[in-house]
Amino acid sequence: MAEQTATPPATLGTADTKSDAAVVRDALGVGIAVGLSGFAFGVTSAGAGLSLLQTCALSLLVFTGASQFALVGALAAGGNPFTAAAGAFFLGTRNAFYGLRLSQLLALRRFARPFAAQWVIDETTAVALAQPDRRTARIGFTVTGLTLYVLWNVTTLLGALGAEAIGDTNAWGLDAAGPAVFLALLAPMLKSTTERATAALAVLLGLGLLPVLPAGVPVLAAALAAPAVLFFRGRSKTSKTSQRPEDAR
């Protein structure tokens, strides 16, 4: 009772507090919505020629949707396996930067970090960072990661089995499922002008180089969009800064 009395009234019921139930609800919503996309990956992977075991192993061990779709997409287009793997690896490196931020936010014990690292992806990072404190961030990260990991792997299995049952996936147009899901996940993240410009330039590079480069290489080349946009943005800021003294005169 003494501790409750000492709590400042202004902190109760503010926007900085969030119930555990609300965090769990939000995390489950994200995990279920994205986890169902594993079905599209299973179908796409089977259509690219990967076996059921290979498809399931990718979801169990890699577990980063964009990289998985990039890998099987490049293989389906006839790309070299090493080039396809390089493109998938490059896309997956973003999770390392997420990990740097989450390691400070979650502050997990040393023995738990290797297990948590498997769940460091776009969705778990977004849910964790949206929480007001460390405790709710841990809840959001854990519930999102667990829900998404289980559901993604189950739907991957179902998608691969379903692809084998329906035969030629190209005849059904299911090869477009992977890119469509990836775009659906990416679009809401493009909030700033810089992000939109980077995405637009990446699309131009990828589509423009597609006819002249081997499959999988245009994905790597499209990554040059990020440093290019940042370079021109930096030059623009420098130019504006240098012009200010002259404007003042």
Please, could you describe this protein's structure?
The protein is mainly α. It is 73% helix and 0% strand. It contains 14 helices and no strands. It has helices at residues 2-6, 20-35, 38-47, 52-62, 65-76, 81-92, 94-106, 113-117, 122-129, 134-166, 177-186, 193-209, 217-222, 225-248. α3 runs parallel beside α10 (134-166), α9 (122-129) packs antiparallel against α10 (134-166) and α12 packs across α14. The longest helix has 33 residues, at 134-166. Residues 1-15 have low confidence and may be disordered.
Describe the structure using short key phrases.
single chain; mainly alpha; flat; 249 residues
List the helices and strands and how they pair.
Blueprint: H1 2-6, H2 20-35, H3 38-47, H4 52-62, H5 65-76, H6 81-92, H7 94-106, H8 113-117, H9 122-129, H10 134-166, H11 177-186, H12 193-209, H13 217-222, H14 225-248
Helix pairs in contact: 2-10, 3-4, 3-5, 3-10, 4-10, 5-6, 7-9, 9-10, 12-14
